[in-house]
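JOB MANIFEST
job_type = single_chain_structure
chain_count = 1
residues = 192
[input]
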Amino acid sequence: MSWMRGVLAVLAVCVLLLTGSAGCGSGDTGGTGEPEARDSATPVGRLLDATDEEGRRYREVDGGQAPEVGVEVQPEDDDSWDVRLTVRDFRFSPAGTEPKAVAGRGVAHLFLDGDLLTRLRGPQYRLAAGLVPRGTHQLTVRLYADDGTVWAVDGEPVESTADITASDAEPSQATEPEGIEDRTLPAPAAAR
């Protein structure tokens, strides 16, 4: 009969552990009775105090688990630019995704000379000629989690930059962007 009590005691402990009621000091208090000293209680990475230009906090992840991004820009015959992103350990989230950080998932923000052009939910973008004034410019792509935080490694954002040089005349007022659009691009044929 004592072995039966032992089995019941073990089962009771298992139930308590599975329901999170055991209070073993591993919950929100870090075993100290005080809230954890970490910057983030989220399941992915650690929030840093550093922010991007828009005030969005960096979400630090280990380099081995971090997403990567590259950007390639090619001129087109109509003086526009074909922008292609290559990503590793990253998936673009569809519109309507819950605003929660999930490892290796989110959106890309595209910047021209530090100014936000658009948010991308896919690896391709056509940059209109009128948006690129004459001269050499930096086109930067940066990866963000769905909660708006910036993916970061060693305190630096996960991003890539390409130089582009436009030789045509300055854009007119009519061709300047009026606002930032959240563009959802269809998945490439290979991903369907």
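[summary]
The helical segments are 2-19.
Residues 8 and 34 are 33 Å apart (CA to CA).
exit_status = 0
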